[in-house]
Design brief:
Number of helices: 9
Distance between the termini: 66 Å
Helix content: 40-55%
Radius of gyration: 25 Å
Structural class: alpha+beta
Largest sheet: 8 strands, antiparallel
Order of helices and strands: HHHHHEEEHHEEEHEEH
Strand content: 15-25%
Shape: elongated
């Protein structure tokens, strides 16, 4: 007789912890998302993780669904609490999704239009950064919603994460280690704004052939980022073939590639890739 109440209390403890874990997860996704597209992308990442760990997630999912069904009708205080938590989880998700910003989608046509209008500013930005950096040094600088997302510099020996550095003197010392300065950093930021770019990844005299390009981040859409890869030289036939085989890349010309990277499987690529490549006379290669 004593085992049944013990099992019942154990099940209830697991049930409440599971529901509260979902609540914490929804809050974490909602608070960390910049827009509702990113919220959907993070949810997809969770779904992929759940599918991979099915031997753990399937029993928990069964408990969660059974918990909801068993709480109807809410004839006891405990069932009312359980049902209220389930409703709270659904409500939180819809509240975040409705009130988070709704970004404009990005596609290849938009990237082409921007490149045509700003390519001179984009190459001016790359030249300025390259001329400012010392040999074998690089900089990664990314913004999102006008907030600094990543700021890393690399010299010949190591790399420094500069995002959290508030002391200007300390930051200026680190910048000088790669040939930059606070004044040059402000000029880089100004040129990024003029080129309509929110991020850069630029190397000077890289050691590896595959690093001989400059990455200019154009736009975020959820967990997807859309960027230009400007190559230092016309790509070889093998390099062009490699680009054409990847569905998240579009070969614009022999030295420019449009790239789309997502944060979850299937969440990358250009929605108008087929139409765009057919218009350019380059049908997709299977």
């Amino acid at each position: 007789m004593k085992k049944r109440p013990l099992l019942s209390y154990s099940y209830r403890a697991i049930e409440i912890l599971l529901i509260l874990s979902v609540t914490i997860g929804v809050l974490a996704i909602g608070i960390s998302s910049h827009d509702n597209a990113e919220m959907g992308g993070l949810l997809n990442s969770w779904i992929v993780a759940i599918l991979w760990l099915w031997f753990i997630s399937l029993p928990l999912f069964a408990i969660y669904i059974a918990s909801f069904i068993r709480s109807i009708p809410p004839v006891s205080i405990y069932k009312k609490i359980v049902l209220s938590l389930h409703i709270l989880n659904v409500a939180l998700w819809f509240i975040f999704y409705i009130f988070l910003p709704k970004p404009n989608p990005c596609d290849a046509a938009l990237m082409e239009e921007h490149y045509r209008n700003h390519h001179a500013d984009m190459y001016d930005l790359v030249r300025y950064v390259r001329n400012s950096l010392d040999d074998s040094c690089s900089i990664v600088l990314q913004y999102r919603d006008d907030k600094l997302l990543e700021f890393t510099i690399r010299n010949k020996r190591d790399y420094k994460e500069c995002k959290e550095i508030q002391n200007e003197n300390k930051l200026d010392t680190i910048l000088h280690s790669v040939g930059l300065s606070m004044q040059k950093l402000k000029e880089i930021q100004s040129k990024m704004h003029k080129a309509g770019i929110v991020g850069i990844e630029i190397n000077k005299c890289p050691k590896f052939h595959w690093m001989e390009n400059s990455i200019l981040l154009f736009r975020w859409y959820g967990v997807n980022r859309y960027q230009y890869a400007l190559y230092d030289h016309p790509m070889t036939e093998n390099e062009r073939d490699d680009v054409l085989r990847l569905h998240q890349f579009i070969l614009y010309n022999d030295s420019v590639v449009f790239e789309s990277y997502g944060g979850y499987p299937g969440g990358r690529g250009f929605p108008d890739k087929d139409e765009f490549e057919n218009r350019m006379g380059r049908p997709n290669q299977e």
